[in-house]
Amino acid sequence: MIIENSGIKGIKSDLAHLDEVMEQLGFVRWQWEYYRATYDLQLSDRESTNDYFLRINTRVESGKMESPYAILYVEDVYIGQATFPHGVNYQAAIPDYIMKTASGKLAELKVKLTQ
Q1: Which of 113, 98, 103 is nearest to 22 (CA)?
Q2: For the residues 82-97, what does the mean pLDDT come to?
Q3: Residue 47: strand pairing partners
Q4: 3-state percent helix, strand, coil for the chain, nearest multiple of 5
Q5: Can you say whether residue 21 is alpha, beta or left, with left for phi > 0 and alpha for psi between -120 and 50 degrees?
Q6: Which of 43, 50, 67, 96 has the fewest CB neighbours in a 10 Å radius?
């Protein structure tokens, strides 16, 4: 599911700062290529033992991904349930507890990226 009104769509940052902030909040940059990067945060539901991923897509506005000075902007934010062995189901129902946690992380991210 796309998280509408995440508050971070369109925010710009250089790669070095974005990587630092994302790491502080528990995100990992798993996928990247010449003009985009994806950051994931794994969230676990203790009751159902399901895992969910909060995924933030970014795209390069200027520079190249290899450069810490490249400017990236945040695109869409997704959340979905992890599926075995490597997938994410974006149509799965997301528990309220997980959505609340995801919303909190997005709010923290917004503050850190707009300081």
Answers
A1: 113
A2: 91
A3: none
A4: 25, 40, 35
A5: alpha
A6: 96
Neighbours of 106 (CB within 10 A): 21
The letter for the amino acid at 16 is A
Q: How confident is the model over 58-86, as a mean pLDDT?
A: 94
- What's the token pair of residue 74? 């945040």
Amino acid identity for residue 108 in this structure: E
The b/e string for 63-79 (b: 16+ C-beta within 10 A; e otherwise) is eebeeeebebbbeebbb
What would the mean pLDDT of 63-87 be, rounded to a whole number? 93
Q: What is this structure's pTM?
A: 0.92
Tokens of 46: 């203790």
Pull the structure tokens for residue 34. 């010449």
Coil, strand or helix: which one is 114? coil
At residue 68, φ and ψ (nearest 5 deg) are -65, -15
Give per-residue pLDDT as tens, 14-58.
Answer: 999 999 999 999 999 988 888 999 999 999 998 888 999 999 999
